[in-house]
Amino acid sequence: MSLLRVEGVSKSYGNERVLRDVTFGMDRGDVEVVVGPSGSGKSTLLRCVNRLTEVDAGEVYLDDACVTAPDTDVDALRRQVGMVFQGFNLFAHLTARKNVTLGLRRVLGMDAAAAREKADAHLERVGLGAQADSYPAELSGGQQQRVGIARALAMDPKLMLFDEPTSALDPELIGEVLGVMRDLVAEGMTMLVVTHEMGFARSAADTLSFLEDGRIVERGPPERLFERPEHERTAAFLGRLTDLHGGSADRSVEADGRPDAGGESGPASDRAGGTSGADGAGGP
Amino acid sequence: MSDATADGASDGTADAARQRTLPRGTDVRSALALAAGLLFWGWLVVRWLNDWLGGVLVGRGEPLLAAEPFESAAAVLDGLAASLGVLGWPIDVLAGLAGFAAFGVEFLPALARGAWLTVVLTAVSIVLGFLVAVPLSVARVYGTRSAWLSLAYAELIRGTPLLAQLFVLYYGLSLSAWIRELPAVGTGIVPGQAVWVAIVGFTINSAAYQAEYIRAALESVAAGQLTAARAIGLSKLDGIRYVVLPQGLRYAIPGWSNELVYLIKYSSLAAFITVPELFDRADTIAADNFEYTAMYALAALLYLGLVLSASKLLARLERRVAIPGLGQVAGRQGS
Question: Are A195 and A252 in a shared domain?
Fold first, then answer.
């Protein structure tokens, strides 16, 4: 049973068709990386999944519940889907800890002590236990993004959406964020990731989709798209990205100096099966 | 300087030196401001208590100081100035000041009672106006149909004279007669109906202006903030409440303090609907003794005291609720 099904989704802004009949599915524990030139609709696709953007046509199903139905409780839906933003979007007036507890308290209704404990655990998990009392402006970009990930994870989502999580970061800070994302992959989190980090796509993704002009041009295991792409556009785009955003070199390993949880040998080879279970960190 | 501000961490010694020298100058100034404030408010509060309690220190409305020493000083200085001829002008100025002080001692008690109503009108109206302005501004920024209602309200109220609004409320509608029937109105410390009508009028008016300041501040909160709030499952209203407003209201403080300062002064329009506030007192007394310039100058001094206190208070508030990276307080202090 698929965790996420996107069926024939189309979206236009005015005359500009951002998504055209996009269809794909993800199983529990899958890691799907979406790449494509800017303006190709990647962000819009993510935002259609948690309904920050309304689709014009098509349906999205999460766990067989129709996300796009008009009577769906969007707030209840979004509780199950974590989102990490390119610009971090941390709540600027709250400390790192309170960024995490806000949702726990006001959405899940946890009491202050329990929320605090859970928030601290999640900040610890992304390596920011010591920064719990810092305000976003006092943190580096990489730290902010890790708080953003902790904030989303604390809600115990079934699915995590990453919208270019490292694109706004200085190169030396990318590794720490990718490191946290790799830990998540190893824990079996279901992740839909828009990124230009080809090293991550190659080694961590189960499936790679190349999106252009709102269409999925090509989709498949990353090694096939990298080695034997069917479309010339895919080859040209992936080649250019690999030149720019480090292909084989793995930044999370480079920066952290710690072994990569996902392993370099083959994508997802050592992860518990793609289709079944492995959702220890998944659903509540 | 700008280097030290931008990169304090790398230049620790210069930064520490600045930290040491900066507060010392500020300390003297803030101590002086504090002393002046304590004197001003101490005097006001003593006067109010004295008059409410039926004259504890001095009779109701009687000056705390005697006017005679100032009067005789003025007379002596006047004589001295006259004997010095043209060269006596600096003495003449001193004589004038002593005379003004004597005048102040005599009439400030009456103005202090008026200042009480000015403070009440301003404080109650700014708070009530704020409570109306917050939903108005939220509706304006995030509403659809309610945005139009909020806009219509703001334009109608801001587009018509406050005095006309007060007249409509006081003479046009039967609000005044209706309030008069309420129990306790006009007895003891509870002010009479005209004051309540003025409060209603100022609240309606100030809400429109405050809503504009707050709207502008809400619009300066990054859009991604609400998006992130929605993404973790907060409803739009909760997102506004817990994420947008705490930031927006902080941004709003400097502009909003402008509204408080205005309100202190335009509360004088209440004089036109018979509220015996500060301006009304000065005007009434001046009509009696024909010392218009001196009376208005005294009233102006009191308004100045109120306004400076208000802006000082809000500047403190702004610093107190400041959050790193939010707003510009820290940056301003350094340079």
Answer: yes
